[in-house]
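Format notes (please read before filing issues)

Several people have asked whether sequences and structure tokens are stored in separate files. They are not. Every record keeps both together, in the order shown below: the sequence lines, then the token lines. Line labels are part of the format and must not be stripped during preprocessing.
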Amino acid sequence: MKLFFFMKGKILISSPNLLTDMVFYKSIILLVDESSDGHTGFILNRPGGILFMKNENHNSGKKFKFNFGGPVSDETFFITTKKIKDLEVFWVENNVYWGNNVQTAIELINDGRISLNDIIFFQGYSGWDSGQLKLEIKNRSWIVIDNYSFNLFNLNKISWNKIIGGIDHKYKIWSNSPDDISLN
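Then the structure lines:
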């Protein structure tokens, strides 16, 4: 039996060591699941595009914004939400849940039972094999945040700069870095 360390519900902030990584550059990740096989999370601050869902008549539809959740299973959509009534989801921590029942989530939004402010759609996810995340944290690729005061459902690319500047004085210089660090 493989051992794993408890990370579910924690936030990963990509450290300045990942500023040249095209996938995880300036990313904020919520870890939603863990097992002896590894860890699963979603990038919270990477806009992805528009998800177009047709209604039951198949003649019109509604557009929903989604985030790029990570490079794994990019053909699959997932959600994180604050609300669980009438929606099959898995508990992450406090009042945060995740799942992949996107169609039901959209129906609940259309019926007014879930607000768009209470849900994030993701295409793909971020994943680490057993021991991989622990090694990346040891190598200082990730900063782990246990307790956070920011709203998970309202993050954008600029949020990384604000969060990294408040973590530790040694990261303060990075809080003003441009998106393209070669312009610095």
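For reference, the curators noted about this record: The mean pLDDT is 85. The first strand starts at residue 11 and ends at 14.
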